[in-house]
Design goal:
Layout: E1 9-12, E2 17-22, E3 25-26, E4 29-30, E5 33-39, E6 45-48, H1 55-63, E7 68-72, H2 82-88, E8 93-97, H3 100-105, E9 117-119, H4 131-136, E10 137-142, E11 149-154, E12 159-161, H5 186-194, H6 204-214, H7 219-230, E13 236-238, H8 249-256, H9 258-261, H10 272-275
Parallel strand pairs: 6-7, 7-8, 8-9, 12-13
Antiparallel strand pairs: 1-2, 2-5, 3-4, 5-6, 10-11, 11-12
Organism: Echria macrotheca
Pfam families: DUF4336
InterPro entries: DUF4336, RibonucZ/Hydroxyglut_hydro
Length: about 280
């Protein structure tokens, strides 16, 4: 993807967690994009949903020790920059979900990457990333989600790192170094309101999107995964799209997934306009 390097917002969330937020559009929807890096006690770094390697990004990684050891494509769509990161850090283990290696091998622009770990429905309860990684993270492979999601919780900070399970639009931080209003246009404004997870905002459209689009083929399986995730301790949520939820994130996810976890039924179908964009390659 083409990116103006001056628009990357680099922020230290904690001494060990850094985000790289960028402007990113899905058609008329300014969803934003975000990579999250976490430095492990060994100094090794894990990167989730890698964004482009700009000069500022490379400089920041160097300041963190430059020991990128894990490159994670957390679903079937958030993978477009893993080639550049793997080239820059050739000893890093590339982690993804079933079907993604085959998808990438069909495209000249993305083929050639070796995945060190691939999560499947069969191995999700037994696959280990590494002892040091497993000590620091909980993780769940949500194969029931349309895009085959990996969800992580950084145990020391109580931070959930997500791809497309949860949105918090508008993408204010991600567009903060541009002159573009992330809510510009009728569609942009409507989607930003519908997918805003801030306190006091209605989560109805996000719940419908999960029920009727993201998990419609296996709602029971999705519910089981969400019960597992909600059993972990976390308060902060870092989504790929939209602003970070600094506190109260677990309460938001509990509400978003209540139809699955509590067995409640949805009442209204999500519109094609609000659900149809999910499934495009992201970052």
């Amino acid at each position: 993807m083409s990116l103006d390097p001056s628009t990357v917002v680099i922020r230290d969330i904690t001494p060990d967690i850094t985000t790289f937020s960028i402007p990113y559009s899905l058609g008329p929807i300014r969803a934003g994009g975000r990579a999250t890096t976490v430095r492990l006690p060994s100094g090794n770094i894990a990167v989730f949903s890698p964004t482009p390697l700009t000069p500022a990004t490379v400089e920041k990684l160097a300041s963190l020790g430059n020991q990128v050891a894990y490159i994670i494509a957390p679903n079937f769509e958030h993978h477009l920059n893993i080639s550049a990161w793997s080239t820059q850090f050739p000893t890093a283990v590339v982690i993804g979900v079933e079907g993604l290696p085959e998808k990438r091998d069909k495209n000249d622009a993305t083929r050639g990457i070796t995945f060190g770990r691939v999560f499947t429905a069969e191995n999700k309860r037994t696959l280990s990333i590494s002892p040091e990684f497993d000590d620091v993270f909980h993780y769940e492979y949500v194969e029931a989600a349309k895009n085959k999601e990996l969800v992580f919780v950084h145990k020391p900070s109580g931070t959930l790192i997500a791809a497309d399970i949860l949105f918090n639009l508008p993408a204010t931080e991600q567009y903060s170094l541009t002159e573009t209003d992330p809510q510009r246009g009728i569609v942009g404004m409507a989607v930003a309101k519908a997918f805003n997870a801030a306190e006091g905002m209605s989560l109805t459209w996000q719940k419908r999107n999960l029920w009727y689009v993201v998990a419609r083929k296996d709602r029971a399986g999705f519910g089981e995964s969400m019960k597992r995730v909600l059993g972990w301790q976390f308060d902060r949520v870092i989504p790929c799209h939209g602003d970070t939820i600094e506190t109260g994130g677990k309460k938001v996810l509990e509400e978003l997934t209540s139809w699955f976890v509590e067995g409640k039924q949805g009442k209204l179908a999500a519109t094609a306009e609000l659900g149809g964009y999910i499934g495009e390659d992201c970052l």
